[in-house]
Design a protein that fits this description.
By secondary structure, this protein is mainly alpha-helical. The protein folds into 2 domains: 152 residues, Up-down Bundle (Growth Hormone, Chain: A); 178 residues, MFS general substrate transporter like domains (Growth Hormone, Chain: A). 71% of the residues lie in helices and 0% in strands. It is built from 16 helices and no strands. The protein starts with a helix and ends in a 17-residue tail after the last helix.
Length: 417
Amino acid sequence: MTSGLPRRFLDLLTRPRVAGAAWWSVVSRLPVYLMSLAIVLTVREQGGSYAQAGLVAALYTLGMALGSPLIARRLDRRGRSAVLTVTAVAYPAALAVLVWATRPGGWEQPAAAVVAGVVLPPANACMRSLWARLPLREEERETAYLWEALLTEVLVIGAPLMLAALMLVGSAGLALTTVAVLGGLGTLGLAHTRLPPGTEGGGGADPDGAGPEAPKEPRQLLGPLREPALLALAGIMAVSAVPVGLLTLAIPAFVAEHGAPGGAGLVYACWGIGSALGALWLGRSQSRVAPQVRFPRLLLAYALGTGLTLLAGSQAGLAVALAVGSAPIALVSASEMTLVSGIADGRSLAEAFTWASLATVLGDALGQQVGGLLMDPLGPRAVFAVATCTALAAAGTAFACRGLLTRRSAPVVECAA
């Protein structure tokens, strides 16, 4: 039933001058999905308190939030080689300083965490902007964004398991350093792999053909967020990420209430696995529907799926509710990427993808904060209800903005016959 989609993935990811960038980008993104956890484990291993570990991890995230749009803007203007090479070296170096040259309690460790977050290689934004520029047919591009969404789910589940495996043979600090170096090597590979002619953005070239002497737009703080459609899309994604943060707090509380606190990890795994399977099962037919049409529909399905948690009466029931209800999540992410590639100016694709990702991160963080405040007075079931209402609000906003999200001409190279 799902054989067609894996075959499409394989055809895409083994194509000459596409496979190199795609697979190097997987390696380069390993640190993204486990570094906050690795930092907490390392600081604790060094004798720091949970408060100190949380502060260092939070400052790393803050640095990432502050630096990622600026790094992505430089990527759009200078091209991938220079920016990725510099960050590929600076990022593991900053983390090595954090692990091996600082200790909890001083100012040096928080400072190193901020620097590491700022210079995180923009592998996500780079690869997603490359998918928009590569000479692909429209259905192939849809497959590429679905692969990106599925890869996120796989890395969210698999990267922490890799960290745990590395810690079996060494310390948390050594595991963190190893992953950072692997990410740097993957970024170097992505920086220097060959691509089809005409794919590169930045480097002084004007993708609209005006030439290097064309007048440049004045620099603006918000960059591509000046586009109302992209601003609306980022807002929708931020709201739709709030339920994820709420559930992150409510799931372990619910499991603990039902007498099996050790089972929270398994329940979380069902959440991610359901999203991945949903992408494989439902993704093969998504390209038949215009992205601005399917995006609000998928958000509505996501909201209804979130509401299934209200029916759970046991740990097993919650696991099933999450596995079934999470089926649209990766598809929502894939549709969002398709919309970004169509809405954003071709000269600022990497930054546009970064703002969209950052909106999701901020929404998730807000949901976790609100979930923490609501948990004690209301309990997990009430938090599930708040998550469902918030998801419905995101879907309603997406339906209202359908006209605004209509795609412009995609900034891509024509696919050769």
